[in-house]
Amino acid sequence: MAKDTDFTVLTGREALARLADLPMRKRRDTARRLIYKKNQRPAGLDEQIILLDALRSEPALTEIDRFYALIAGGHKVCEEVMVAEAEHWLDRFLEAEAQIRAMPIAFGLRKDRTHLVFSALNVALNLDLLTGARHADRLASWFREEVEGLQLRRMTPYLFNSSSNTVKCAGIVLLGDPDDIARIARLMRKLLSYGTEINNPLHWWIFSRFKAPKHLAEVSERAAFGSFCNSVHRLTAIEAAAAATGLEARRAALRGVADLCVAQARPAQKAALMEQAETRLRAMV
């Protein structure tokens, strides 16, 4: 296969056939590219789901890459509001929970357990909300255990990146347990603060001498910074909900939290998730 194969014009099964013809190392590198670079996958979301479903068990990949295929596939199923499929994909997340939680802490965004866990939780919580929050308590317990068990002395600068999914998870978890909102708000504030504190180059003097631009106008904004700004907006909404008094005020504030925290790659996806969030909010007493 030529190096410049355009997977965007292929179906999911055609893409898998092309992968199968590759030598093992090239197959692994290409499969990883298709997991982590969505603009290089087949154009149709249904075709992407077929591809990612198969990559969950691709032998050329590492275990963590296969988990990210699960995450990417679950994300696309939720994006397409495929409710029946979402139940099956959520079951896969629940089945994989122990394995995901057993992964080691490592250096690198796509190697680190912390980023993997909160990426998985974010997708699982959205799939669960979309399908009626049948496993909300289990996922909330997983979330709390992970947040409370963060080993800060072993965290890497990539905690800055992971904090985005963590705060989104918090917003969805709180729909089912608003009594815990003040404590969760405090923890999320500390998380964002600490993630910023450790997000520095390991060798600052090398960075400042050889990589830093000369003038502020030349600085390129990091993609992670935009996500961080959104996380601050979500935290502000969570803190406002914690400060709200009275049932209706708390409901309204949590509605604002949900509006910022549910998955919203497409308007139809956000509408479906907000409808389910509203059901949970109406159940508050």
UniProtKB/TrEMBL annotation:
Domain of life per record: Bacteria
Protein name, entry field: Uncharacterized protein
Originating species: Salipiger bermudensis (strain DSM 26914 / JCM 13377 / KCTC 12554 / HTCC2601) (Pelagibaca bermudensis)
